[in-house]
Every structure is written in structure tokens, then in C-alpha cells.
Amino acid sequence: MTVTEQNVPELSAAGLRLAYDGRVVVDDLDLTVPPGKVTVIVGANACGKSTLLRALARLLSPRAGRVLLDGRALSSIPTRALARRLGILPQSPVAPEGLTVGELVGQGRSPHQTWWRQWSADDERAVARALECTGMTDLAGRAVDELSGGQRQRAWIAMAVAQETPVLLLDEPTTYLDLAHQVDVLDLVVDLNRDEGRTVLMVLHDLNQACRYADHIVAMKAGRVVARGAPREVVTAALVADVFGLECEIVPDPVSGTPLVIPIGRHHRAPGAPA
Ligand SMILES: Nc1ncnc2c1ncn2[C@@H]1O[C@H](COP(=O)(O)OP(=O)(O)O)[C@@H](O)[C@H]1O
Ligand SMILES: [Mg+2]
Known about the structure:
One of its GO terms (molecular function) is ATP hydrolysis activity. InterPro entries: AAA+_ATPase, ABC_transporter-like_ATP-bd, ABC_transporter-like_CS, P-loop_NTPase, Siderophore_ABC-ATPase. By secondary structure, the protein is of the alpha/beta class. The protein folds into two domains: 1-75 and 166-180 and 190-232, Rossmann fold; 78-164, no CATH class. The protein is built from nine helices and twelve strands. A six-stranded mixed sheet has the order 6-7-8-3-9-10, with helices on both faces. A four-stranded antiparallel sheet has the order 2-1-4-5, covered by helices on one side. A two-stranded antiparallel sheet has the order 11-12. Helix 3 packs parallel to helix 5 (149-162). The longest helix has 18 residues, at 179-196. The model has no long low-confidence stretch (mean pLDDT 92). The chain binds adenosine-5'-diphosphate and magnesium ion. The site of adenosine-5'-diphosphate has 10 residues, from helix 1.
């Protein structure tokens, strides 16, 4: 395969070790985020997904190994240049008290501004569009800290959209959202990927949504990558048992054909099925 602009990874990590104080949470991790695709990280609680995402956005420095963005060490990229290339929605972002939705989303434009070019028509357009596609236009004047959990989550997503970065990292973007809004947000993420070619890396809790929306799945367990690839190849009953300690059956999703994980649990085994 010839290497073109299209398949040169923008974001990759090699030999990554991440720790808090003395405790190593992620170790010897290699990751290549396929450019122009949607990659979803799955794994049990506390396996290091958010820690990894934060390191990929330089919110946490590695103890060993390195992260490369556009072929450069992440550590060598000036902050504003980084913020024009890569946006992150952390797991539990907190907005300053009283900040309005419009102001929050406007902050997504600050990496694009300079002392000689402050707020521009481009910024105005980007903010209006981000509010529109997240359904937040009518709430633009409201304070972020007075919104419901789901509205607040959409305000943050709008900020990340307004930043217009080629690489977008999202840590559980569907938290707090009802099912209809979960689907809206995931559809929006796919639009950003398909229509604008953005590379997306997100953490999702719901394996079935991960299977539907990911081109590429990365399964983590105890700070390491245990499987990666297309959902149909990666998400098997054996993987779910290994990663989540959950016995399940996998059937094709009747809508998308992707793997649909049916957990068994202790109370619902089919009569006559082997224990
Ligand atoms: N700021 C922190 N300080 C110390 N330990 C942390 C911090 N953040 C996360 N951890 C620990 O690191 C491990 C991985 O956490 P995290 O990356 O948030 O997991 P996940 O996102 O997969 O649920 C957990 O054991 C967690 O308690
Ligand atoms: Mg997390």
C-alpha cells in the first residue's frame, strides 16, 4: 500500500507508560489511531481509558514512551498549535460559574485567534454551526451550570465541534444523555468524520454502540491493549469474558449487522442450556 496523506496516522503512541504518583496505570502501550476513521476504546471501569486519552491530548505527561501528532513529538508542539490540531472533551468537564453556553462554545475558537485577528466572521460561523448541530442554539444564552446533565454535555460537545480540529478525542460523550440524545450525538460524530474527514477517537461505555459506530475498536484491560480491529473481528464472547468478566451471547444487530452483546447474568439462562 502506498503511503498517502490519507493513511499517514496523525496520532500514535509507542511504549507509553502512564502513572499517578507511584502507581502505573498504563504500561508499554502502543496505539495507532487510523486517520479519517472513528476509533472507539472499550474496557472495564478503571482500566485506564481516560488516562490514555488525557495523555494523547497532553493533559498528562508520560513516564515513558511517546505520543506523536503529525509525526512530531506531542511534547514539542506549541499549545495553541496543538489546540488547532486536536480537541478533547474530557470525561467530566467543569465550566466556570455563570459562563453561558455561547461563551463556552466561543472558547473553542480561541486557538484560532491572534492578537491581530480577534473574533472574526469565521468564528461566528463556526459557533453558530456548532450550536445548531448539537441542538443548543436556543440555549446559547443560558448559564452552563444551570443546564441539565444532558444539555451540559451537548454544550461541551458543541465547544469541541467549534474548535474545528482534524483530530477529536471524546471521553464518554454520551454520559448523562437519554437514549435519543445518545444516538444524536453519535450520529453527529459520524457526520463530523464522514463529511469533514475528522479523525475521531472516543471512549464509549456501551459495547453495542461501540460496535455500531466504530470503524476500529481498541479493547483495553488493566492498562494494556488486548485486542484491536474491526468490531466484527474483535468483539466476540471470548473477548467480552476476558475484558469485562461477563458471560454473553453475541448476535448480529438486526439494524446494523454489527455484533450485539446479550449479557446472560445469573437469572436468565435459557431452560435446559448447559450451566
Ligand atoms: N487523578 C488521578 N489520581 C490518581 N489516580 C487516578 C487519577 N485518575 C485516575 N486514577 C486511577 O487510574 C486508574 C485508571 O483510571 P481511568 O483512566 O480514569 O479509568 P477508566 O477511564 O478506564 O475508567 C484507576 O485506578 C483510577 O483510580
Ligand atoms: Mg474514564
